[in-house]
Amino acid sequence: MSITGQCACGDIKVEIPRPTEMCFCHCTQCRRTGGAVASANFVVPTEKVILSGHTPKTFHDTGTSGKPVIRYFCHKCGSPIYANAEAVPGVLFVRSGLFDPGQIPKPTSHLFTKNFESWETAFPGAATQETEEF
């Protein structure tokens, strides 16, 4: 079974297998490119992500590993769609906010917890990592 989401303007649609896990990334660049203290992502095998509509624009970034991270976003509304990190081959980090409420599982992990704000805590039961090489 799969779920379909879309950017804010609807120009890009994304279909993925129904996720069972969700990861919050608190790295500096995910914070900056998402405009929030973390990005909420599904880690999906590349071949399982189906895009339709307009081709996303890209922002070429560098991950904490020093390797390239390509961030994809809508050309019209600016919604982040997914990221592709060379340091983690074979998967895409698809933004969970593209999907309607009721389709998103509880968080299962937090990455870059060293960047937590003083008031942030991990979701109960979620794995935590202070850093990660992306």
Automatic annotation (TrEMBL):
SUPFAM superfamilies to which the protein is assigned, alphabetical: Mss4-like
Domain CENP-V/GFA spans what residues? 3-120
User: Which InterPro entries does this one have?
Assistant: CENP-V/GFA, Mss4-like_sf
Keywords tagged on the record: Lyase, Metal-binding, Zinc
GO MF terms listed in the record are: carbon-sulfur lyase activity; metal ion binding
Entry's PANTHER family?
Answer: CENP-V_GFA DOMAIN-CONTAINING PROTEIN-RELATED (PTHR33337:SF40), GFA DOMAIN-CONTAINING PROTEIN (PTHR33337)
The record's similarity note reads: Belongs to the Gfa family.
Name the record gives this protein: Mss4-like protein
- What is the organism of origin for this protein? Naematelia encephala
